[in-house]
Amino acid sequence: MSKSTASKPTLATVWLDGCSGCHMSILDMDERLVELSDQFDLVYSPLVDYKEFPAHVDVALIEGSVSSDEDERKIRLVRAHTRMLVSLGDCAVTGNVPAMRNPIPVSELLDCVYKGNGLLQEQIPAERLPSLLPRVRPVHEVVEVDVFVPGCPPSADTIFTVISELLAGRVPQIAALSRFGA
Amino acid sequence: MSPAPAVKTLLIDGKDVSASGDQTILGAARENGISIPTLCHLDGLTEVGACRLCLVELKGSTRLQPACVMLVEEGMEVTTHTPRLQKYRRMILELLFAERNHVCSVCVANNMCELQDQAEAHGITHVRFPYRSPSLPVDASHERFALDHNRCILCTRCVRVCNEIEGAHTWDLLGRGVNSLLISDLHEPWGESDTCTSCGKCVQVCPTGALFDKSKVGGKVRKNPDFLSYLNEMREGLR
Amino acid sequence: MTFEELEQIATDARAAKETFPRALNVCVAAGCLSLHSDAIKSALEKEVRRRGANCRVAGTGCMGLCSLGPLVTREPDGHLLKNVAESDAPEIVAKLNSAMPERLLYSRDQPFFQRQTAIVLENSGRIDPEKIEEYIAAYGYQALLHALTDLTPAQIVQEVSKSGLRGRGGAGYPTGLKWGTVAKTIGTTKYVICNADEGDPGAFMDRSVLESDPHRVLEGMIVAGYAVGANLGYIYVRAEYPLAIKRLQVAIRDARRLGFLGSQICNTKFSFDIEIRIGGGAFVCGEETALIASIEGRRGTPRPRPPFPAQSGLWEMPTLINNVESFANIPTILRRGGEWYASLGTNKSKGTKVFALCGKVRNVGLIEVPMGTPLRQIIFDIGGGVPEGHRFKAVQTGGPSGGCIPEQFLDLPVDYESLKEVGSIMGSGGMIVMDDSACMVNVARYFMEFCMSESCGKCIPCRAGTAQMFELLTRMTNGTAKLNDLDLLEELCDMVSSTSLCGLGQSAPNPVLSTLRYFREEYMEHIVRKHCRAGVCECNKLAEVSA
Ligand SMILES: Cc1cc2nc3c(=O)[nH]c(=O)nc-3n(C[C@H](O)[C@H](O)[C@H](O)COP(=O)(O)O)c2cc1C
Ligand code: SF4
Ligand code: SF4
Ligand code: SF4
Ligand code: SF4
Ligand code: SF4
Ligand code: FES
Ligand code: FES
Asked: Is residue B2 part of a domain?
């Protein structure tokens, strides 16, 4: 991807609690990705190796729901430094598969996964790991979201249109492009 | 035999329409190519007026009326798609998504679901209300079918088709409010029901992925609720 | 039964009473009964027998001042004894002819008694509800006889219309108009239903009328049956009212015995009977179409109207459905004339209204005042005001369908229109007074919880909407709400009230809307500052932690 010039808008992609499928769908844009990359600078993404979230980002695409304290910390940080925040994919928009744990209390869930299954050293991992929030929440329940792109994952076409529109300074009309589960 | 009801003329979305006096606004509208969204209504079943998606505005009345139950009247002026109605419809759909656990991406009905279709038609890209995430069971005890309460919108189409068409009255509702639950017989597992004839009608009329045919999971088979009108016509023709 | 025979029963009953120079009437309505007034009655009877006193001891219905119960009245001087205990019996009987001890005596020389006008409650606390003769001695069943012998059904409807009586079940629909519609609707069979479901929290008007003067309701129903052309009536009472059910059973039996119910009533061609149906106590079963479904043996859920019950009700027949208090007004209207009744009250709200006054007032109990009486008079004169040390804040009328009225409207005359104008409703007559220890957000949350759990679940706006509103209100009270939750709440209020199928959902947002209208700043405090000025909400703890 091309090096940053001062005039280009900046784009970030963020991976919270998702399966990475939405990022795969971004990559699925194939050669169009090259076409787009002339128009923006990718300044933060799990796809590239940047450690710090920049101070100012024009568009951030969020994959995944807010499931752990680390997710929550991250999304608040991202929100504070982003102009247009995009919930990308059902996990970010509805909670989707990660939220299927919501009817079950966290402690029960951990016990069920880590205990009583015949392992030698039964214990719930805690050290240096993010801890689960009581409920998985869609991004907009935690911070304000500007654009919602449902779909699991949203198609490469949809993502291409969304990014193009945003880069052109327009708010994309999503309803015609994608739907829950699509 | 009662005499044939008189013909009424009315205005729907500015269009002059004539209808028979025993027709609902919905019936008259659809006959004239005007679509009104519905969920609980199904041609061939009694109307319950429960989902409120088909509410329309009537000139001279502040109260919105369900098009599926309200009969046409002479000189009525009906509006079916005002911004206010559309806003309410969107909210009703949002409420349904937030009420139970709809995970479309892993649902048997994904892309074949009336709730999902309505959400799309109404431009819903997200749900503003907090998800209630209730803990609900799945009843897979029936040898051919299953019921996933997480996707049930309590439209009672299954209750009505089973009672009114099949005559088995296997389904009914238990409890009230958000705690309402569809039950078979006296709250027994469906597979142990004495009344169910395994006819599959309830599965066909269910607008969502709540009732499904186990053999068709992943098969991307659309349900076919339209057999009812056919059944009814047959019945009437025989009379 | 003829007028002469009726008069004879009345004379005999009065004479029987007058053989005793003294009488002690013990309130045995539910309020006092829960404080064991039946034991007090037995103790008084025993004491009278022991002393051989020439005194009659009788049970009566509610005397109104339930908060001071158990109550006893001494006749003929009408002295009222409050907080009576079993152990007081010897002293009361001993002093039958002299002054009562101060500790028991409650002066009738107070606004609580003077400011009331009794029509529906005229016999409450004065007659034995289980004795039909006492009702007859109080001019009972004269209206029925008058109606059957002197009036045509159309004339009765006219008289009721003239009275201006409006339905007391909540909506205030003109009773005469309703009767006229049912009378004119063609049908081989018609029904009369008395709605005694009374599910609003804090309301006990109908229960009290049924326990204290059941014949009045029966008489109203029989007259209604004659007026609309029905031969069968149902009284739908909730199972939680066992005493009311028992008294109704006794009353129906006695009315049949004297020929006020059954075939060829009072030697006319008119036949009418009444059956009791017992409901499971769901609030929504008070809604007329749900109630009808319940009588028919189906799940008690409302259905869309039209058709209205007047056209197609019970078993799809024309059905007249009225509230207990509506029927209870009928005998007096027919006896004294519609015009007389219409002289009470305001322009559009005629007659009197019974209220169950409760909450933070000195005199908790049952009252009856002319329509148009200012709130201030009800709360501060009759109710005696807010107890020492606290300030009046708001009065809630209409229960879960109503709203909270703040201090600036205390001079509002209580009638259907005025209450509606300030964002509340008359409802069935519950009136809860709140002082500064009440948090209005919490009050709204309380009523929303009630609506949520009483929603039948049939339609989505009410089923899921009340649950969402409850969740949003809960967030406000526990300090987790965001500012846009208030917008969501207001949007929901509008949607749920506009789209719900029945009155429960349509009016469920009212407590929120009215508190938002007058106490918006309290909502803002909860959301922004996590502060509850009344100190009842959890959010205060949160604020302390972060401070
Ligand atoms: C949720 C709901 C509950 C109701 N509960 C009662 C009730 O307990 N008693 C009653 O008389 N009317 C109740 N009503 C009103 C009745 O539907 C009906 O309007 C009334 O019984 C008519 O009698 P009226 O004209 O004498 O007021 C209720 C209405 C709703 C929507
Ligand atoms: S929305 Fe679907 S594809 Fe995207 S992260 Fe979630 S599960 Fe994966
Ligand atoms: S029932 Fe419909 S809306 Fe619900 S999860 Fe399945 S596809 Fe989605
Ligand atoms: S399969 Fe047929 S009989 Fe069985 S529950 Fe469904 S509709 Fe009723
Ligand atoms: S199972 Fe299906 S048809 Fe039956 S009530 Fe639920 S959503 Fe409706
Ligand atoms: S408004 Fe509420 S109580 Fe009335 S029908 Fe709808 S869900 Fe039932
Ligand atoms: S379709 Fe009319 S209310 Fe559901
Ligand atoms: S119950 Fe006894 S005075 Fe009201």
From this structure: no
Regarding whether B12 and B70 lie in a shared domain, the answer is: yes
Q: Are C165 and C351 in contact (CB under 8 A)?
A: yes
Of C430, C450, C447, C433, whose CA–CA distance to C205 is shortest? C430
Indicate the number of domains in chain B. Answer: 2
Digit-coded pLDDT (tens) for C114-159? 889 999 999 999 999 999 999 999 999 999 999 999 999 999 999 9
Per the listing, tokens 């029925």 go with C144
Report chain B residues whose CB lies below 8 A from the CB of A95: 131
B219/B149 same-domain check: yes
* Beta carbons of C44 and C26 less than 8 angstroms apart: yes
Residue B69 phi, psi dihedral angles, 5° rounding = -115, -25
Between the alpha carbon of residue C91 and those of residues C94, C95, C104, C184, the distances in Å are: 5, 6, 11, 60
ipTM over 0.90: yes
> What DSSP string runs through A159-174?
HHHHHHHHHTT-----
Q: What is the DSSP string of B2-30?
A: PPPPPEEEEEETTEEEEEETT-BHHHHHH
Of the candidates A116, A120, A62, the one whose C-alpha atom is nearest the C-alpha of residue A89 is A62
Number of structural domains chain A divides into: 1
Q: What is the DSSP letter of C345?
A: B
Nearest CA in chain B to C471: B130
Q: What is the pLDDT of residues C344-399, one digit of tens each?
A: 999 999 999 999 999 999 999 999 999 999 999 999 999 999 998 999 999 999 99
B11 touches B78 (CB < 8 A): yes
Please tell me the pTM assigned to this model: 0.94
Q: Report d(CA C125, CA C122) in Å as an integer.
A: 8
Q: How far apart are CA B197 and CA B194, in angstroms?
A: 8
Provide the CATH number for the domain around residue B65: 3.10.20.740
Asked if residue B169 and residue B61 are part of one domain, the reply reads no
Does the CA dihedral C221-C223-C229-C232 come out positive or negative? positive
CA distances from A66 to A12, A134, B106, B135, B219 (A): 17, 11, 19, 20, 32
Q: CB distance C464–B172 less than 8 Å?
A: no
| B188 CA: distance to closest CA in chain A (Å) | 23
The domain in which residue B42 lies consists of: 7-81
| Nearest atom (ligand 1) to Cα of C284 | 1
Closest approach of C299 to chain B, Cα-based (Å): 9
Residue C297: alpha-carbon gap to chain centroid: 26
Residue C116 placed within a domain: no
User: Which chain B residue has its CA at the smallest distance from A151's CA?
Assistant: B105
